[in-house]
Amino acid sequence: MRPVIPYVTAALLFGLGAYGVLRRRNAVLVLMAVELMLNAVNLILVTADTTVRAQLPHAGQVFALFVIVLAAAEVGVGLAIVLQLYRLRSSVVVDEVPLDEAAVEPVPATVEGDR
Which residues 6+ apart lie within 8 Å of 74 measured at CB? Predict the structure, then answer.
């Protein structure tokens, strides 16, 4: 097997994911770009495991499994943060997220019975 094709594909996927992280304003699209980068790393790990026989058998596949578990945890925590951000700000634009505590102003909740 020629390892050049999976390596180039993984490099293109990683570059596309990095571009998505740097250029997107929507938090959900940023999470999708991070997933694309993690999948590129998985492709590199599995390709390296099949082409380079090291002393540890199937080490690349085991590391790829750990990356998949990490990606699942990242999606769970990331989507929870995005949902909370949407509840507070009614927007998931990354540029509008306050990064310091002084800029955070709680949005008053309206209850149907208060009217």
Answer: 31, 34, 35, 38
Higher pLDDT, 54 or 52: 52
pTM across the whole model: 0.74
CA distances, 106 to each of 8, 72, 87, 88, 95 (Å): 47, 30, 11, 8, 18
Q: Which residues contact 25 (CB under 8 A, 6 or more apart)?
A: 93, 94, 95
114 Cα distance to chain centroid? 40
- Name the β-bridge partners of 105: none
Residue 48 and residue 4 in contact, taking contact as beta carbons nearer than 8 Å:
no
List residues bridging with 93 in a β-sheet: 26
Q: How many CB atoms lie within 10 A of CB 45?
A: 20
Q: What is the DSSP letter of 93?
A: B
Residue 88 CB coordination number (10 Å): 14
